[in-house]
Write a structure and sequence with these properties.
Number of helices: 10
Number of domains: 2
CATH architecture of the largest domain: 3-Layer(aba) Sandwich
Shape: elongated
CATH superfamily of the largest domain: HUPs
Distance between the termini: 49 Å
Strand content: 25-35%
Radius of gyration: 22 Å
CATH class of the largest domain: Alpha Beta
Oligomer: single chain
């Protein structure tokens, strides 16, 4: 599907994802409904509440629910430097937004000219003209336009003057604390994948390509798939019970993230032992879904002690993944 000033990333069952310049028009089928704008990294409980509210308003307006995100994140354009890994890749983020209720997902190419738009110009050029919105839904702390000068009060006034419906969604709280991408990230970095799963309403997962490692695991009876090219945040060092998907099949697995101190290796990596699997997965894509953290990474006195611990790790992973914890 070819679109002027845009690129279609997905189209099925009347749901589409497009990569779009802010100065271009969205496809005609995107207009006439409700729009929500945000980074949506992780698509956590708060984001899902926004999309649900957008879906509900779109139904009342008789049009589509459209979620708008950015690539790259605005802060990377405003403050160039080392890139912080996201919680989700763009394709995964779009899929999660669709699953949460968005009919269409627009990924705006972030540029200095887009970030230079005043709040009024962003509303008029992007929300009203480009997306043809009849309604807008945003979170309680939404900021937009040059210097993040626009607030929900600004947006409410702009929508009122243009005859658009406007709704804001209150802060979502879980376990007594606000839900945010920063909170999700902190839980993942700390290795608390169970807490992250609660905030995301799904297990956290990463994907990468299986690369060649030292091949020690095969020699000691625990072959591992070493995951490279992981574009998203890795959980903190430790051993985890995980589900690994390769070639469309899901395997119970145990994963180690961190260095390998027993063999004097300091490099941080992710190694996955697929329980019950035999075969070669080098060069293939592998997705790891985290169920629970089993223990910390630590050195062992020798190979025999390490092997005994790996046996315990595999049994613990089986228990977690079978639900018998």
């Amino acid at each position: 599907m070819s679109l002027s000033g845009s690129r279609s990333l997905r189209k099925d069952n009347d749901m589409a994802t497009v990569l779009l310049e802010w100065s271009a028009h969205a496809p005609a089928g995107f207009a006439g409904g409700a729009v929500t704008v945000g980074n949506f990294d992780g698509v956590h409980l708060g984001h899902r509440a926004l999309v649900r509210a957008t879906r509900a308003l779109a139904g009342r307006l008789g049009g589509p629910a459209v979620a708008v995100s950015f690539d790259p994140p605005p802060h990377q354009v405003l403050h160039p430097g080392p890139v912080r890994p996201p919680l989700t890749t763009l394709p995964e983020r779009a899929d999660l937004l669709h699953a949460a209720g968005a009919d269409h997902v627009v990924i705006l190419r972030t540029s200095p000219s887009l970030l230079a738009l005043s709040p009024e110009a962003f509303f008029e050029d992007v929300m009203a003209r480009q997306l043809g919105a009849k309604g807008v839904v945003e979170g309680y702390d939404f900021r937009f336009g040059r210097g993040r000068a626009g607030t929900n009060a600004t947006l409410r006034d702009l929508c009122g003057a243009a005859g658009l419906a406007f709704e804001d969604v209150q802060q979502v709280v879980h376990a007594g604390e606000p839900v945010s991408s920063s909170r999700v990230r902190a839980a993942i970095v700390a290795g608390d994948v169970a807490a992250a799963a609660e905030l995301l309403a799904r297990p956290y997962r990463v994907s990468g390509i299986v690369v060649t490692g030292a091949r020690r695991g095969r020699l000691i009876g625990f072959p591992t798939a070493n995951l490279g090219e992981v574009p998203t945040v890795l959980p903190g060092n430790g051993v985890y019970a995980v589900r690994a998907t390769v070639d469309g099949k899901v395997w119970p697995a145990a994963a180690n993230i961190g260095p390998n101190p027993t063999f004097g290796e300091d490099a941080r990596k992710i190694e996955v032992h697929l329980i019950g699997f035999s075969g070669d997965v080098y060069g293939r894509s592998l997705t790891v879904e985290f169920a629970a953290r089993l223990r910390e990474t630590r050195p062992f006195a020798g190979i025999a002690e390490l092997v005994e611990q790996l046996k315990r790790d595999v049994e613990a992973a089986k228990q977690v993944l079978s639900g018998n914890t």
